Each structure stands twice: as C-alpha cells, then as structure tokens.
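Dear colleague,

As promised, here are the two records you asked about, laid out in our usual form so they can be pasted straight into your sheet.

NAME FIELD: protein one
SEQUENCE, THEN STRUCTURE:
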Amino acid sequence: MDLVTPTSVKRYSPPFAWRLLATALSFALFGIGGVILRVAIFPLLALLPGDRLTHRRRARATVSRLFHLFVQFMSRSGVLSYEIQGVERLGQPGQMVIANHPSLIDVVMLIACIRDSNCVVKQSLWDNPCMRGPIRACGYISNSGSLDMLDEAAGALREGQTLIVFPEGTRTTPGRPPEFHRGAAAIALRGARLVTPVVISVYPTTLTKAEPWYRIPSRRFHVCLRVGEPIDPARFASLGPAPLASRRLNDHLHQYFMKELAADERSASRD
C-alpha cells in the first residue's frame, strides 16, 4: 500500500487555528470510527462466509484500509505530512516489525502499510470502548508482560503472520532516548524468520506521552518511517543460551535505533 508523500509537501503549513480544528476532527473521527466498527461493520463482516482465519484476515484488511484513509485525512487537512522509505520490505511471512514509538500516530501508519498484520497492543486498550472492537476482531495480542504473551506472539510468527512490536511498550518520553525491553528480542528468537527495524521520527514532536492532543506544534508536523534492512535472528540464537542471545539482540537493536535517530535529529536541525 503506497503511502509515500513527496517530501516537498512538508514545507507548507496551514494556519494554527485550522490545524487545531483539523486535529480535533481527526480525534473525533478516530473515536467514532472505532465505535462504528464495533457495533456495525464487524458484526456485518462476521455474517460473511469463511473460517476463523478468513474472518481475521478480513477484519485486519478492513482496519488497514481505514487507517490508510485516516492518515490521508490528516495529511490532506494539513495536520501532518509524511514519507515512508522502504515500504516494500514490509508484510513478509514470519516478519517481526520492530519500531520506536514517539507518537500516537505510529501504530496507525504501520498497520496502514501492512494489509494483514498482527500487533502487540497495550492491555488498557482492550477495555477502551473505541478500540476494543477492532483489537478483538483482528486478533491482536495483549501486552500483558506474561510468558503466555511471549508464547502467543512467537506462535503468531511461526504461523507466518507479520507482527508489529514496539519494544518500549509505550510512547517515548520526550527528551529521553528510547528504552527497549528485552521481551521483543525474546519473541524474535522464539519465532521470527526475520526482524525488520522501522525508525520513526516526528518533527516537531507532538502526540507524545506527555502532551494532550490539543497542544499542537507551531507548524504542520512531519512523520518519517524508514524501513531498515532485515536482521536474521538466527545470528543471535547461535551466540549462546536464550537469555544471553536475547540480551545481545536487544542491545544490537537499541544501538541501531540510537544511531539512526541521532542521524534524524541532525537532519531535522538543518531543515
């Protein structure tokens, strides 16, 4: 799914008042859309023929397409601009997509890029009235932090699903480097055929863990997703016992993201 926007588009920024209104409309649209999916769209899709796997794929394709349209709405209304580099590398069987998590829009854009993806999501979202319908229909995995969660995630990868994971577990605290939990590396070593890093940068920062939705930046923000080269987890599995291999893979990923994010910051400071 092509979400690539010419980088020149990010130079134009609509007036502040318009972007604030468009941001409010975006949040309202997202919330209302989630409720409509839960009470109307997914019950109708459930009536269509097919087994459990077919229904799950249908639900994920629906969410992916709607997220694509949502990103288009935010872009065309002037809230954000974006670019995605290397999108053709996403969506492979048994692929674990690992990304940093600077803003609320990250997971939306990644799911929009991958038609049939699984995702590890926060436990609290399972009780969110706007999100629990899509989450359950798509068969996403709850980030409970238990061993059962690790087994479920690894099992999804062994089945050939594409799995999106944010190793930080929550959005990055502004001004601090990302902190990766080792659970993502443990999942990769248990079930992934390949690990694909996606470096996400958002400038100016917005929709972070510390900011309410209405505290928008002084100009249209730009989101960049850069899909890196795949990593073979077997390289690390052969280094020793599982805890050691997990720690080394986690360190490798953390260093990779720190290096790439530092390069993004230098690039942003020159713009």
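NAME FIELD: protein two
SEQUENCE, THEN STRUCTURE:
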Amino acid sequence: MTTLGDVLAVLEAAYPPATAESWDAVGLVCGDRAERVTRALFCVDPVGSTVDEAVEVGAQLLVAHHPLMLRGVTGVPADDPKGGLVHRLIRAGIALYTAHTNADAAAPGVSDALAEAIGLRVTGPLVPADHDPATGIGRIGELDHPEPLRDFARRVADALPATAWGVRAAGDPDRPVRRVAVCGGAGDSYLAVAARAGVDAYVTADLRHHPAGEHLAAGGPALVDVAHWASEWPWCEQAAHVVRTALGGTVEVLVSTRRTDPWTVGVTSRTGAPQMRGPQ
C-alpha cells in the first residue's frame, strides 16, 4: 500500500521544503500521511475547478504549485472561500499539498519545465542559490539555431496552453534570438539579472509597463510576456513524472486540464480604431 506519506517523501526529495522562501507557505495543507493514495492530480492553482476535478477523477491527493493559504489565518470556516475548499477536500478524503518557491528553485524545477517546453537546452540557473549553485530561480538556455523574435514569440505561444492573455513580445521583431533566460511566474524583479546575463530574450510573466520600457531603453534583451498560469503549467507534468517514476506506477498521476488563469477575455482593436506607429 502506498500512503500519502510515501508520495510526499518523493515530492519533498525533489522539491525540498527547506529551500522555500521564508515568506512562503508550502507543504501539507490537509490530509493524513497514513492514508492510502492510489491517484493524485497535479495543478497550478488549488481553486474550485481543480478541487472539482480531483473529486471527479477520484483522486486522494491534489498537488498544487500555488499555496492555498499564503497569509496566516485564524480559522477555516466553511463559508469562507478558502476555508470552504478545505472543508470540501476533507469531506471528499482528498489531501492538499503545495510546492511553490521550493519547486521554483529545484533542479529540475518550474523554470526547467518552461525551458523544456519552449525547446531550450538549459545551461544553468538565472539566479544561482547560495547553498547549491546548480539550483536557483530561473534558467538560462539556448536554442539549436537563432530565430527572429517574432518567430520565437510564436514558438513560445505554441508551446504553452492557450490563454486570453496570450503572448506578447517587446523589442525589435527581427532581433535574432538564441540565448534565452526564462522564469516561471512573475519575473520582472529579475530584469536586471537577465540583462547582465547577456541573453537575447527573457521569457516570464506579469511584466509591467514602466519596468519593461526602462529595461528596453537601457539596451536590455527582448522580452516575451506570457500568462502567469501558463508559464507554470508545464511543471505539473514534471512533478507528476517524479511521482510516477519513483513509485513504479502504484499511484496513478494525472495533470489537471482545467485552465485556472483568471483572465477570460482577450480583445484587440477593431479595424477603424486609431492606428499608431510602433517603436522606430
């Protein structure tokens, strides 16, 4: 019999909780380590739709990247949105486990999965960790052959699940791209690091107007901005593979097919809207 404790031991070996940031909230949210697990579902967000999916597929474990309760709480009443999810999980006999910044820093981790999806050969971390320079935040990688930024942006869009946000690129559309930095999740705090790394492009999520513009004005690499959820979704299969491989098929592992990106509508200007010139 494979227990929840057995599955969590595998996950914690791959994504050590001690490497999570001090502000983070990772680990077991609810569940009994002694209970049997035969099916686990992996997702980015522990929200209503993924809890629904876990119930529908008969999972005893939901593994999420994002924490359910990042800030401290004094109770989990059923009429609270997050407390309600905890009650639903417990009633259905489903444990919830989260691996967040510890999965970001691991090697392989979240950014490795993003790099692999794009087709990059990883050469090292963008921000090496103090305790182990092979781990850390973000990754630097290379394409087999350079391609124009416009084609590279299309490559990224084709590699990730579709979202209303889509994929945006900033920089000369003809700029050759071969050496690339990636950071799953919100990565605009590492713009300067990507610039110092000498890459041709930086792929991340949640880029803001002013930092992006100032970065480009200073001669930084081209930017490719993707939806936060989409940038981290490839990790789900990576983590599922870790469990599948370590436990020899005793636990069926599934990757969520629910799009939990919060943005639901993407609209571009209609013909006849004011036409503006792009950067010259």
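A couple of things worth noting about protein two: The chain is about 30% helix and 25% strand. The domain at 4-100 is CATH 3.40.1390.30 (Udp-n-acetylmuramoylalanyl-d-glutamate--2,6- Diaminopimelate Ligase; Chain: A, domain 1).

Best,
R.
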